[in-house]
Amino acid sequence: MKKIIFLSLIISLFGSCTQQQQVVKSPLDGAWDLISYEQRHGDTIILQLGKDFTGSEMKIWSGKYFNYVGQYKMADSTMNNYGGGTFTLVGNRCDEIKTFPTPTTVKLLLEIKNDTITQTWPVDDNGQVNNNDYYIQKLIRKQ
């Protein structure tokens, strides 16, 4: 009887170890540092990181959540930039549903090449960029 119980425990332990769920990671998962930031009107660059202002920002995606934190300086003023919430990603279209600091939804296009992400926003429901006033950020994966 003891052998049967022991054997049953071993089999159930083996079975529970091999039945672990596989966690599918998004290619976004991880921490990313901002390396480029532009505000554009058509083909004209209105503001550019390193030229018109300085600063840094980090963005983190994990599962269905994202957050970002950064600080920028322009002339004599400093701006803290932060936020977070959840996101959905379908193809290269990303909807960020921000829950803080101000609840809003931002629609973006994401292009991922190796360890670099390019974010362009705002876009409409069809993924078309608003060429009158839009932003392009490039981020590189933190090592």
What does this 3D model show about the protein?
This protein has 143 residues and is mainly β. It has a single domain, classed as Lipocalin (Beta Barrel), CATH 2.40.128.20. 12% of the residues lie in helices and 57% in strands. The chain has one helix and nine strands. An eight-stranded antiparallel beta barrel has the order 1-3-4-5-6-7-8-9. The longest helix has 17 residues. The N terminus is likely disordered.
- Biggest beta-sheet profile: 8 strands, antiparallel, barrel
> What is the CATH level 1 assignment?
Mainly Beta
- In total, the number of strands is 9
Overall geometry: globular
CATH fold-level name:
Lipocalin
Please state the CA-atom Rg, rounded to the nearest Å: 22 Å
SSE pattern, N- to C-terminal:
HEEEEEEEEE
TL;DR of this structure?
The protein is mostly beta strands and 143 residues long. The chain is built from 1 helix and 9 strands; from the N terminus they run H-E-E-E-E-E-E-E-E-E.
Present the secondary structure layout.
Elements: H1 2-18, E1 30-41, E2 44-48, E3 54-62, E4 65-74, E5 77-90, E6 93-100, E7 104-113, E8 116-121, E9 134-141
Antiparallel strand pairs: 1-2, 1-3, 1-9, 3-4, 4-5, 5-6, 6-7, 7-8, 8-9
Label this structure with key terms:
single chain, 143 residues, mainly beta, Lipocalin, eight-stranded antiparallel barrel, 1 helix, disordered N terminus
